[in-house]
Amino acid sequence: MTDYGLNPQRTVDELKALRELTGDENGAQRVAFTGQWLASLDFLKERLAELPVQVETDPAGNLWATLKGESERELWIGGHLDSVPNGGWLDGCLNVLAGLEVMRRVSWQYGGKPPVTLRLVNWADEEGARFGRSLYGSSAVSGYFDVAELSKLKDKDGISLPDALNKVGINLQDAPRAKEQLKNAAAYLELHIEQGPVLEGLNLPLGAVLGTVGVERHTITWKGQAAHSGSTPMNVRRDAFLAAGKFAQEIYTIAERYGGVCTIGSCKTRPGIVTSVVEECEITLDQRVLDKDKLAAMWQDAQDAARTFAEEGGCTVEFGDLWNIEPIPFHPELIEAVAQSILEVTDQAHRLPSGPLHDAAEVARAGVPTVMIFVQSLKGISHNKIEDTREEHLWQSVQVLDKVTDRAMAWILKQGQ
Question: Which residues does 244 contact at the CB level (< 8 Å), separation at least 6?
Answer without folding.
Answer: 220, 222, 267, 281, 283, 309
